[in-house]
């Protein structure tokens, strides 16, 4: 039997919970059964209660089963994950896969990646070493984990899926740059020749080339995009949040998948994990600054933009169909079975 965890939450938008549910939903389509659990920051006040919930949720797992734990679990209890793994390891011949959404180890703005003691003692890396296989974002994350002595079999996901069947507008070349972010953004250069549309937590007065549109769900935004580009702001000169810069060199942001599933070409930082993918596929630009972006769009022709849209199309279709998730899970199972 194949199992995968799925978080139950009322959240309907954003990168914290929705990818978890998408992965579980796509896994079900290829024969996985779900283990449903609930987000609650203070769900486990004692070990006794914690173990009761763990046995309730994972008690149906049998000898020889494969269990995919979506990682991290978002329960925010450092005692919970080790006890789940410990519980499952007591079941004979169970295989454990971590489907990685984030590696919190790499979040810190002032992270010293050369600190060997950190590598050996870090909580999250220690937990990842206890799995039989990891599904990681991409090859950059794979290499970083190997460098940090996580010596476990790994499969690269590529992109997080974004299934939907929402009718969308045709896209045309424009200077519009969409920034969808739930985090506060630092000051954006108002002097660049771009039309910047911001959706998220910021809600400031409109400026000459910047409009703040408040929060909208992904479904609402999909019906509004009519051209231009989606910007993923995590690294280098386009890191508008001024943190997670190192993490942006390793991850495959859910926002990137959202823009591509919307049929938009994308903008990423030159040092991001996706820079080579974006440029090789000709689905957008990898840049260091908004000034550089303005110059690129200034010289972009309508025909060149249409070519980008054509290159986005097959990726959009794959994301809408959940292909990246299903392929990664099938690869993972195959690697475990031939072990």
Automatic annotation (TrEMBL):
Signal peptide: none
Domain Glucosyltransferase 3-like C-terminal: 186-332
Keywords for the protein's UniProt record, in alphabetical order: Transferase
Source species, domain of life: Bacteria
Tagged with keyword Lipid biosynthesis: no
Keyword Oxidoreductase: no
Species for this entry: Weissella oryzae (strain DSM 25784 / JCM 18191 / LMG 30913 / SG25)
Domain Glucosyltransferase 3-like N-terminal, chain residue ranges per copy: 1-158
Identification of the protein by name: Beta-1,6-galactofuranosyltransferase
